[in-house]
Specification:
The chain is α/β, with parallel strands linked by helices and 315 residues long. 24% of the residues lie in helices and 35% in strands. It has 7 helices and 17 strands. Strands 1, 2, 3, 4, 5, 6, 7, 8, 9, 10, 12, 15 and 17 form a 13-stranded mixed beta sheet that branches. Strands 14-13-11-16 form a 4-stranded antiparallel beta sheet, with no helix packed on it. Bound molecules: zinc ion (ZN).
Length: 315
């Protein structure tokens, strides 16, 4: 028997694009569905799993508007706002529980929370219809990120080849403990080819950040055979990251200095310098031997417990 979402998808005529609302126990989701004229896989594209990461929303809106259904092999299911209750308040997390939706998978993290229950529902919805999946993320309201991709350690050789040879990203983050409860982990365990792309951030969405997402999604669609246009191999390969360092702020204060996403830093160097309300200065320094700045806090106000940076060890 077909699920309600499968019914909705198959109601779109072949060779057409339609926007459809879908009622769930957790509220309404708005999809754009492209059913190609030719047979092929079903790919699920989504953004704003974190409600303040807007780059991916713009990227998906532009992408689905410009793709010609006549040239699509298979089906594209695009969900530009994957976490509507978080997006509605412009925050990373849903106000219903303040739980990170992308850390509730594969293990019973926050099992009684709204986000846990919604996450399980969403993962089942995706695994039921799609064989390929892209989760678009970015820096959100206060972080800036380098362009990088995260895949589970258990990703197939094909997925590893896609991200290391064909995507235009600065780094590939794979097999670190922090990524073990993400939606891509759960979907990979269900046999879906799943990747998470990061681009952009801070308060202003840039054309460049949107374009990086669009280009990497198009490359993935070519790799998966959804688009027949030629796949271009990248000249420079991304850095492969197996080990990370995360920094968080200890006190309320003001940012004084920070490094930029993509910068290479060495042990002992400060990544961010900030001061508390008594103007005492603090530094958060690199503990890895040599690392690339994958994300960094760039907004002037810093709050205790807030994320300051993510570094990836590069040798
Ligand atoms: Zn995110």
């Amino acid at each position: 028997m077909k699920s309600a979402l499968e019914e909705l998808i198959s109601a779109v005529p072949l060779g057409q694009r339609q926007q459809r609302s879908f009622e769930t126990p957790f509220g309404q989701l708005v999809f754009t569905i492209i059913r190609g004229a030719e047979p092929g896989p079903t790919v699920w594209l989504q953004a704003a799993e974190h409600g303040d990461e807007l780059d991916g929303i713009y990227a998906l809106h532009q992408l689905v508007a410009t793709l010609s259904p006549a040239k699509v092999h298979g089906t594209i299911v695009a969900l530009p706002i994957a976490n509507p209750s978080a997006f509605a308040v412009g925050h990373n997390r849903s106000p219903r529980d303040n739980v990170n939706l992308n850390r509730v998978f594969t293990k019973a993290a926050h099992p009684d929370s709204y986000s846990y229950r919604y996450g399980r529902y969403l993962a089942e919805l995706i695994a039921r219809v799609a064989s390929c999946f892209i989760d678009l993320h970015g820096g959100g309201e206060y972080l800036d990120v380098a362009s990088f991709v995260t895949i589970p350690e258990t990703a197939t050789p094909a997925t590893q080849q896609l991200v290391t040879e064909f995507l235009d990203v600065e780094a590939v983050l794979t097999g670190n403990k922090q990524s073990s409860a993400m939606l891509i982990d759960e979907l990979t365990a269900s046999g879906v080819a799943a990747i998470l792309l990061e681009s952009g951030g801070a308060s202003q969405v840039t054309d460049r950040a949107i374009q990086i997402h669009i280009d990497n999604v198009l490359q993935s669609l070519r790799y998966w055979g959804v688009l027949a246009t030629a796949l271009t191999q990248q000249q420079t390969h991304p850095r492969i990251i197996h080990r990370i360092q995360e920094g968080t702020f200890a006190t309320l204060g003001l940012l004084q200095e920070c490094r930029q996403p993509g910068d290479v830093v060495v042990r002992g160097e400060p990544v961010v310098t900030y001061s508390n309300i008594a103007q005492q200065s603090y530094q958060l320094v690199v503990s890895l031997k040599r690392a690339i700045v994958l994300s960094v806090h760039t907004q002037s106000l810093v709050r205790p417990g807030q994320y300051a940076f993510l570094l990836g060890q590069i040798d």
